[in-house]
Design goal:
The chain is an alpha/beta fold. The chain has a 6-stranded parallel beta sheet with strand order 8-7-6-10-9-11, with helices on both faces. Strands 1-3-4-5-2 form a 5-stranded mixed beta sheet. The radius of gyration is 20 Å and the shape is elongated. It binds S-adenosylmethionine. The site of S-adenosylmethionine (SAM) has 18 residues, from helix 6.
Length: 238
């Protein structure tokens, strides 16, 4: 059975217009035409069944038939903070974190970070988030935010119950990951890792040091594993 295609829109109304990239993809790549069905997503967690009414030069007019709350969204909020990575590794981490149900993603610069961020890269990461959300049938694409410093990134997690800092030089974990419950904020360093001062800063802000074992994992491995562990233990992979 062909998958009904999913598109993000600013606002889902009785009559909704598909514009921009979403319009181009629908019209030029998927060749959607009048009468075709599609699913619209407005980021509220709802899915809207819709039908194409009219295809114009710059927009596709769709009528909404019915809506429902997506059952694909996690109930336990998980926020991933990742140091900016080289090449397209940050995109890989964003894609996997979205598939694992993460609610928010923050990319930060820190002392040993050798990759830089700019508006184009951030826009690209948010596009990767949208595409990954559509692929895994989520109704929400986690927003990717850039934090120019580790402190700002860590302080953005104040409302998270479990604040967990993956530290490559932590002898052991300050808390057990086996008994996690409630929202989780996960911090993972870039290829260069963290400094002792950054580890102390994280503790000061209320993060627990977490060891992910005796081997040194690549940053992207650590980020994906950490999200997987948090999602599994909090029941989001059932
Ligand atoms: N530059 C560091 C070194 O050579 O020791 C390695 C940093 S590692 C590539 C990137 C990040 O992954 C670390 O900052 C940490 O957040 C996480 N990480 C990797 N291995 C880990 C481990 N065994 N325990 C906890 N965190 C780990």
């Amino acid at each position: 059975m062909a998958t009904i295609r999913r598109f993000f829109v600013e606002k889902a109304e009785e009559e909704t217009r598909l514009t921009g990239d979403e319009y181009s993809h629908a019209k030029n790549v998927l060749r959607l035409k009048e009468g075709d069905e599609l699913i619209l997503l407005d980021g509220s967690g709802k899915e809207y069944d819709a039908i194409v009414r009219k295809v114009d030069k710059k927009e596709m007019v769709c009528s909404i038939l019915r809506s429902r709350l997506s059952e694909k969204e996690s109930k336990t909020p998980i926020k991933l903070l990742i140091g900016a990575l080289k090449g397209d590794k940050t995109e890989l981490v964003v894609q996997k974190a979205v598939e694992l149900g993460v609610a928010e993603i923050g990319v930060f610069s820190s002392r040993f970070c050798s990759a830089y961020m700019n508006d184009n890269k951030l826009e690209r990461l948010n596009k990767v988030s949208k595409e990954a959300a559509k692929q895994c049938l989520r109704a929400v694409a986690p927003k990717v935010t850039y934090y120019p410093s580790l402190r700002e990134a860590l302080e953005s997690c104040k409302e998270y119950k479990n604040k967990l800092f993956a530290c490559e030089f932590a002898e052991k974990s300050d808390v057990s990951l086996h008994t996690l419950s409630g929202s989780c904020a996960l911090a993972v360093g870039s290829e260069g890792g963290f400094s002792q001062e950054e580890f102390l800063l994280a503790k000061e802000i209320g993060f627990a040091g977490i060891s992910l074992g005796k081997r040194i994992l690549r940053a992207e491995t650590a980020a994906i594993v950490f999200c997987g562990i948090a999602a599994f233990v909090t029941g989001e992979l059932e």
